[in-house]
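User: I'm curious whether this sequence folds into something compact or stays loose and floppy. Could you predict its structure so I can see for myself?
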Amino acid sequence: MIGTWASTVGAAYGTAAAPAGAGAGTGAASGGLFPPGWTPFIDPLNLHDHWWLTIIPLIVLVSIAYKAIRTKDLSTYWKQVAVMSVQVFAGMIALAVLTFLIVEVAIPVLE
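Assistant: Here's the prediction. I'll summarize afterward.
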C-alpha cells in the first residue's frame, strides 16, 4: 500500500520510486543529510543519532503558536514565549529524571 502510494506521488512529481532495499530517503547513497531526490514529509531524515536535538525547536515553535493565541497583551509576547519554552523544557527534564528513578531505583528495590 505504501509502496504504491509512494510510486504515485513519485510519478506525480517526476521522480521514480527506488526499488525496495535501495536505501531511498536514508542518505545511504550520498552520505549526506539531504540525499538527492529527498521528498519532505515522505522520506524521513536520517537523524537517528541526533533525534533529541529536535525537541528544542519543537518546544519553541509550540510555545510561539500557543502564546500567539492565548496572549492578551503582545508587548510581553516574546518574554512569555521564552518563559513557556523554559518551563516545558524543565518539565521534560523532570519527567525524564522521574522515569529514570522509577525504572532504575524503585523497581529494583521492589523486586
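Summary: The helical segments are 2-12, 55-70, 77-110. The first helix runs from residue 2 to 12.
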